[in-house]
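Need residues for this backbone.
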């Protein structure tokens, strides 16, 4: 174990730093913020036997039920029992701790995916670093919303699928990938984007025919993922008896067709505005008045702006390079083509389908695409870093340094630190950010 830690000390340090950012002061805002009044409360309703309607598949609610129940077994739980308190009497730690843990574990998942996509170790380290210090991922790792669950299970499924395709004899990896994919779609239907990426991974294995393992494996994978999706509805249907399985799906679909309309919510944003960061989301805001002036406490779902914009340029570059390499077909770049295909499709399939959705959309819907674009940036920067010569390392070193400085600059409004009014407005570069 110690030998592995010494060999991979970089990812160990990044993981510990990422965990620190996600757990420190987790309860300093000791009340539900933004949609925390929904997600963990639904999980709490399961524990109290109350029926409710939820506009997504139920797995995130199960996770919050588990989180709250486990917390109630610890000495930190102050009430006599869960049955004798209401949701607002719960400590926010009872449901936020699970997001912080999942958000921390997401870092090594990305590290593993990068190692499977490329033998470039710098790529894996940078990919993990970017995820660890990305502001919007930090915020959603500290807030009890389902977004981080979707990312963790979706990318974990891709990780195990890539392991399987690398060594197809290891069927256990295929089964684990299918289970994780079933869970992903059981969190939100937007998890279907990861399912599409999985199919692309099978196809790009370049062994796809009626006679080989990949087609049989793909059918097994889809069957297991679908079966698990159906099974995961059983506890919810048992506890919420108003609708059966088919009626439940009709109600969910109808809700999303008629829910919050465009621009009705102050933080609605168009899908094409997400990559250029037009409108972040204020999860929480308060102000205190002192003799020295006004101080603000804010939690903004604001991605690291520099990382966000550079990642957009990187994924565009990746798509262009991939298209060019296909047109010229250079066999020596076959490994690059596979990786570029997965990153490009991952970005597009999680972004473009939102263009046909009429309902109110939010910046957090961009997160799956954003992670793929960050990996594109990590690869391009690491590619430059691996070149010989000190002068060739200046540009990638400068990019990494600027991203870290940008991370530190916007961190106070992502962790919910109290800062002077003028410092808050300095970080609001555009009127639409407020």
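Answer:
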């Amino acid at each position: 174990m110690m030998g592995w830690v010494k060999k991979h000390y970089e990812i160990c340090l990044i993981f510990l730093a990422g965990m620190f950012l996600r757990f420190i002061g987790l309860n300093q805002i000791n009340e539900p913020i933004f949609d925390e009044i929904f997600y963990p409360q639904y999980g709490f309703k399961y524990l109290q036997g109350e029926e409710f309607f939820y506009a997504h598949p139920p797995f995130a609610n199960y996770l919050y039920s588990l989180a709250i129940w486990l917390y109630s077994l610890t000495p930190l739980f102050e009430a006599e029992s869960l049955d004798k308190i209401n949701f607002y009497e719960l400590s926010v730690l009872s449901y936020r701790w699970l997001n912080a843990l999942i958000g921390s574990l997401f870092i090594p998942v990305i590290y593993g995916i990068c190692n499977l996509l490329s033998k470039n170790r710098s790529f894996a380290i940078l990919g993990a670093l970017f995820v660890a210090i990305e502001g919007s991922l930090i915020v959603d790792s500290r807030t009890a919303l389902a977004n981080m669950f979707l990312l963790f299970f979706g990318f974990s499924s891709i990780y195990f699928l890539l392991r399987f395709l690398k060594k197809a004899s290891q069927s256990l990896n295929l089964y684990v990938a299918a289970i994780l994919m079933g869970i992903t779609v059981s969190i939100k239907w937007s998890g279907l984007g990861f399912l599409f990426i999985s199919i692309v991974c099978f196809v790009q294995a370049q062994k796809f025919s009626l006679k080989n393992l990949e087609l049989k494996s793909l059918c097994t994978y889809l069957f297991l993922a679908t079966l698990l999706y159906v099974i995961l509805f059983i506890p919810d249907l048992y506890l919420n008896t108003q609708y059966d399985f088919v009626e439940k799906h009709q109600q969910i679909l109808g809700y999303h067709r008629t829910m919050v309309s465009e621009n009705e919510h102050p933080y609605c944003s168009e899908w094409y505005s997400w990559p250029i960061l037009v409108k972040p989301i204020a999860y929480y805001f308060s102000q205190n008045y002192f003799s020295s002036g006004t101080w603000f406490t804010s939690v903004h779902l604001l991605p690291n702006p520099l990382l966000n914009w550079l990642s957009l340029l990187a994924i565009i570059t990746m798509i262009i390079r991939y298209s060019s390499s296909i047109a010229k077909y250079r066999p020596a770049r076959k490994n690059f083509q596979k990786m570029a295909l997965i990153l490009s499709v991952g970005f597009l399939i999680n972004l473009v389908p939102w263009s046909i959705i009429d309902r109110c959309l939010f910046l957090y819907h961009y997160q799956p695409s954003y992670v793929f674009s960050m990996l594109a940036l990590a690869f391009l920067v690491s590619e430059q870093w691996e070149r010989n010569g000190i002068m060739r390392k200046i540009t990638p070193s400068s990019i990494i340094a600027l991203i870290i400085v940008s991370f530190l600059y916007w961190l106070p409004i992502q962790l919910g630190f109290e800062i002077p009014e003028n410092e808050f407005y300095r970080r609001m570069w555009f009127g639409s950010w407020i």
